[in-house]
Structures are given as structure tokens and as C-alpha cells.
Amino acid sequence: MLDEELKADLQKRGIFVASMEDLYNWGRKNSLWPLQFGLACCAIEMIATAAARFDMARFGAEVFRPSPRQADMMIIAGTVTKKMAPLVVRLYNQMPEPKYVIAMGACAISGGPFKEGYNVLKGIDRYIPVDVVIPGCPPRPEALLEGLIKLQEKIQGQRLFGPHRARHADTGNAADYPVPAYGAHDLEPALNPQIFQPDPPRRDGE
Amino acid sequence: MTGVLEAIKAAIPSAGVEFLKNPSPCSQDSLVVAANDARVVAEFLRDSLGFDFCSNVSGVDWPARKVKVTVLEKETVEGVETEVKETIEREVPGYLEVVYHLFSIAKKSGPLVLRVRTGDRDRDVSIPSLTPVWKGADFQEREVFDLYGVRFDGHPDLRRLLMWDEFADHPMRKDYVAPDDFEYEPTPHDEILVKVKAITEAA
Question: What is each CA distance from A87 to A13, A68, A177, B188, in whole angstroms?
């Protein structure tokens, strides 16, 4: 790895040095193609973020694709009902690697105000890995842009080689996640234990 | 409302239609229509009285309940017959109810509230569908079927609307028990607070 000090010193002399990883990550972080789908009211904020006033194009993520096969970022914008959850997982599975997930709003994170209901999933992180969570009900477009910037920072910092390489760079990892089935009362299984372990009940402040 | 009732009685004398008063301040009274006559009455309302728009279909679950009724009873005390008021508890069997809100766009009148009741909550849960009369009732009747379990005879496509097909129950019924998948959340409140207390004290 190149020493940061040496890098800065060279830069002053007009020599720019970058690693392959840096260039590669810089390229892909500024050209994220989100999957064009919204689930509830958060989708309205997502649309506003993509439109002229907030203009997600400034961050290179304006090409909303209507097909998962052409997208590399999924914004879970809204309430994921138990009926919708298997379809969301299937869409995620159909996206090519490297792919990223932003859970936008209280419902996508934990079920939000509907958490104790019978038909709402208590957070999409039960079935697919989430990279960035954006709290809010719904989050304002600025918050979604902040989440996008955070995701870009994460992509910039991802390693492509070595033991700490990113999930998609590790060919040993399974590309898709099991799609839950509709059960008599709930989804089966109710969560993917490989990526989600619920907290045991505890008192406040513990 | 009473005018509508009289018109129905005049046109279809055999129809089982009852007037149900709403004692609350809104005083939105309704007509209880016998399930067997619902289709004929609905067609009469649409064709002859101009109720061309069914704006809303709702389900109501009435579990079996006890009602206190005051009745006058004759009592003979020492040879003297007197009338005594007595309060008795009467068991009212449970049933499911479907409420239709009708408007007339042509006559600018409404709402007319129709109630159709099933025989009970378990076996006799069929009532005739009014979708053939008002097409707009299609999805709403499917929703009532999904959440309350009322079967609409003659509905063109009676499938669940909101829950998935494999779902085994009707979640808006009063005796529905949701799966016990409680999880701690940082801001417990009300019932959940009681649950959290019970769990943490047991641990």
C-alpha cells in the first residue's frame, strides 16, 4: 500500500498515484443505478430526490432501472408487507453483483409503526443484507442523499483483494439469499438466521 | 330513509327489510336486508330509486354477546296481579355483517346504508354478492372476504385481496390471534410495555 504522506508529496509535484482499487471504486461509486421500485410513502420522497429540485443525478445515481438485472442498488422505500417480502428478496437475487441495499424509513428498517401488526415484516434485514439504513418517517430527500453519500463512502472503502475483501469480491459467497415461503400465519422461515440474529428482550438502558 | 323503506315494501312486499335506528348523534340510520332478498332489493334500489353508486363496502364482526333486556312480567302476589319490570340477560348469537354505503349521483342523494347479515360466524357465512349490481363492490367484497371470511355467492372472482392465498385465518375478526412473534423494541408502550415487563421479570 502506498504511504498517504508520500502520496500527498507526489501530488504536490504533479504526480498522481492511485491504486487499482481506488480507481475502480471511484468509478462505480459515482455511477450507481438504483432499482426503480417503491413500496409506500417513502417512495414519494425517493421520487422527489430523483426529480429536479433535489436531483440525485448530482451524485451519479439518477438512472432508475425498471429491471433488477440492470440495477446495482436497491432502495427499499417503504413498508415491506409479508406478502411483498418474498418478491423483494427475489428481486434482490436477480440483481447482478456488486449490489447494495439502502433501507429507507422506519418501516423498511424495523416495521416502524406497523411492527406489532400481523402483516408487516419487521425489517427487510431479516432476509437480505442492508448496507445503509436511513431513519425517518418518511426521511426527507436530504436524508436519502446523505444515505447515498454514506453508501458511496462505503463503496470507496471496499477492498477487492485480501482477507477483508468485499462480499461480492469473494467468489465463495452465495450470490442469492433464500426466498421465504408463504405460511399459514407468517412467512417461513420468519428470518434468515445466517444474516439476522434478533436481540433478546432486555430492559431499557441495559 | 323511511321513504326508501316504504318504496321497497311497496315494490317487493315479500322482501325482508327492517329499519335500524342509529341512536348516536350522527343518526345515520340503516336498513337491514335479509340475505336472501339482498340481490332483489339492490337491483330495485339501483334501477328504480337511482342508487347508482356503491361507495363503500365494510365488514363488521359481531361475536356472540349477552344483552340485558328489560321485560314486563306479570306476577301474582297474594292473589293480586301486578306488572313487574325484570332485567334478563339474553344471549345474542354472533354473526358477520356487511355494510354497503350507497349514493345516488343522479339524484344527488345519499348515503343509504344497507346491512346484510350472515347466519353465524362459522358455517353459514354466505351472503349474495352485490358485485353484479354495482361493479365497484368487486375489490371491496374481496377485502371483506379476506379479512372477515364472508363468502359472497355469485362474486366473479372471490380471492383474497390483501393477505396471501395460503393465509389460514381472517385477521380482522375479533377472536383472531396474531402469531406470537414479539420482539423487543426500544420504545415499549401500552400492551407491549406489559409484555416486556413480564419477559424481563421472568428472565
Answer: 54, 12, 12, 30
User: Where in chain B are the domains?
Assistant: 2-61+96-202
ipTM over 0.85: no
Write out residues 114-173 of B within 8 Å (CB-CB) of A.
162-169, 171
User: Does residue A14 lie in a domain region?
Assistant: no
Q: Does position A108 have pLDDT exceeding 60, yes or no? A: yes
Taking an 8 Å cut-off on Cβ atoms, the answer to whether A185 and B168 are in contact is yes
Name which of B160, B161, B183 to mutate to probe chain A: the one with the most chain A Cβ atoms within 10 A of its Cβ: B183
Domain formed by B2-61+96-202, architecture: 2-Layer Sandwich (3.30)
Nearest CA in chain B to A182: B166
Which of A122, A182, A199 is the closest to B166 by Cβ?
A182
Q: Who contacts B29 (Cβ-Cβ below 8 Å, separation ≥6)?
A: B1, B19, B20, B21, B22, B113
Residues in chain A: 206
Answer whether residue A183 is part of any domain: no
Q: Considering the domain boundaries, does residue A6 fall inside one? A: no
Reported as a single tens digit per residue, the pLDDT across B119-146 is 888 888 999 999 999 999 999 999 999 9
Q: Is B14 in contact with B98 (CB distance < 8 Å)?
A: no
Q: Does the predicted model carry a pTM greater than 0.95?
A: no
How many CB pairs (< 8 A) connect A and B?
A: 51
